[in-house]
């Protein structure tokens, strides 16, 4: 079993993302990592079935990252072995005009997973304390108040049986350059690129600072944040998988007992 | 390439499900079938990316079957290799009180796929002309009028770029017995069984008749029905996969051209 604790942001700790590795491999070889991923994937398939069969708990996984950090590919690689009937992926874009007429958690709450199901958020309420802050879409008085709203909201979810796990896929500015350049070099990848993607890059350090504060304020016992070194994709997948499997194992789920006498039923 | 045409219900044809095989293998060996499935799965992954990149079309796949016909396992086996971000599975249960205050297509329409996406319906509007009829939930005057509403609705979807494919996973009454018995024999499968599941079984012939008429009335050029022999799971998966791949290939999709000059962009 891989130790995911080094990547966990302990509640109350003070961090600077610049000091956290983006390329670490946990002392593992890629081959060992791949083998562990294969085993964990199979276990996750079973845990999903138990989650669905019991309908007592649900799982919410949140991914945040800078552009090209791998939110899409992590989602694909970690969750595609699962039964698609029980998985819903929601990508949050800029709020629509309609959504702006409600509090910032309104549209988020709508997509919380029901019991038995898994929801994956590709971006989330954390855009409202990070991008909203860096791009100056909201005054400090507004976004500063949101940390507490987020914590209370996540507590509401966990009190109702939702396991909430939050992952920041951490890459360096240099690695992002490589990945974006690759999209430019390959015509079949152009559709993934928009020149406006480069704007956030100009404010890299502001983003790192805003994310650091968000993790300090919102990594709680109920809903922990993990900063995952994301430049080695196999290591990134492994940490995400192991964290999810650990959390679901701790629920100690079992198949529900029948409320009928199976031996008394005759199928005609 | 596997010929799926023998399983297609041609518009205007008259059928009796009792005459259609539930165990056919198309003259293939299982090993050949598995090899073809592997190839088609890989191709479907690429076609999904093209669908998403272009955002001109979408795909709606409808599954209907008697209990234990394999709607869940076909969904899992055909769609789990895909990117879960682009796939939404909707299981339709009995309409809620709220839904009963609207026309029968209202709740269905809401889940139509947006451009670039794939929706899978586990049960669908066809319950409203099959189960509603057999269980006498609606008088004939009501359900008889619905065939035309369904055809007009599906035409609306296809006119907007949605590929609509409908599959009936066809099993025999004897095969259903085996499958249900298996659920009773295994305590870890009890949660999949409800004694009320046996009710529809008592009306097997009525269901076959209602389904036959639904396929006759609603297999259109725009939105064809396929009756898939579903007792050999590999053959069932193969026919579903091949039909979907054929339909998506016929769109002749390609990656969109960039609306910027990639060579002029410098990433700083």
UniProtKB/TrEMBL annotation, chains A, B:
<dbReference type="InterPro" id="IPR027417">
    <property type="entry name" value="P-loop_NTPase"/>
</dbReference>
<dbReference type="Pfam" id="PF03976">
    <property type="entry name" value="PPK2"/>
</dbReference>
<dbReference type="GO" id="GO:0008976">
    <property type="term" value="F:polyphosphate kinase activity"/>
</dbReference>
<protein>
    <recommendedName>
        <fullName>Polyphosphate kinase-2-related domain-containing protein</fullName>
    </recommendedName>
</protein>
<dbReference type="InterPro" id="IPR022488">
    <property type="entry name" value="PPK2-related"/>
</dbReference>
<dbReference type="InterPro" id="IPR016898">
    <property type="entry name" value="Polyphosphate_phosphotransfera"/>
</dbReference>
<feature type="domain" description="Polyphosphate kinase-2-related">
    <location>
        <begin position="28"/>
        <end position="251"/>
    </location>
</feature>
<dbReference type="InterPro" id="IPR022300">
    <property type="entry name" value="PPK2-rel_1"/>
</dbReference>
<comment type="similarity">
    <text>Belongs to the polyphosphate kinase 2 (PPK2) family. Class I subfamily.</text>
</comment>
<keyword id="KW-0418">Kinase</keyword>
<dbReference type="GO" id="GO:0006797">
    <property type="term" value="P:polyphosphate metabolic process"/>
</dbReference>
<keyword id="KW-0808">Transferase</keyword>
């Amino acid at each position: 079993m891989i130790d995911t604790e080094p990547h966990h942001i302990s509640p109350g700790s003070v961090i600077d993302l610049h000091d956290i590795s983006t390329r670490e491999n946990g002392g593992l070889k890629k081959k060992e990592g791949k083998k562990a991923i294969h085993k964990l994937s199979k276990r996750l398939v079973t845990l999903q079935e138990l989650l669905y069969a019991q309908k007592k708990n649900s799982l919410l996984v949140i991914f945040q990252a800078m552009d090209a950090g791998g939110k899409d590919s992590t989602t694909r690689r970690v969750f595609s072995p699962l039964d698609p009937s029980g998985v819903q992926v929601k990508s949050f874009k800029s709020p629509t005009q309609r959504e702006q007429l409600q509090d910032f958690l309104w549209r988020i709450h709508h997509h919380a997973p029901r019991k038995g199901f898994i929801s994956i958020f590709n971006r989330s309420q954390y855009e409202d304390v990070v991008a909203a802050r860096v791009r100056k879409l909201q005054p400090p008085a507004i976004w500063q108040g949101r940390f507490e709203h987020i914590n209370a909201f996540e507590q509401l979810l966990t009190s109702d049986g939702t396991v909430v796990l939050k992952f920041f896929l951490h890459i360096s500015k240099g690695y992002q350059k490589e990945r974006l350049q690759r999209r430019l070099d390959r015509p079949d990848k152009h559709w993934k690129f928009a020149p406006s993607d480069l704007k956030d890059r100009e404010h890299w350090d502001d983003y790192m600072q805003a994310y650091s504060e968000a993790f300090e304020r919102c990594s709680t016992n109920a809903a922990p944040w993990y900063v995952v070194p994301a430049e080695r994709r196999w290591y990134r997948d492994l940490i995400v998988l192991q964290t999810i499997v650990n959390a679901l194992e701790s629920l100690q789920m079992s198949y529900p007992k029948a409320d009928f006498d199976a031996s008394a039923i005759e199928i005609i």
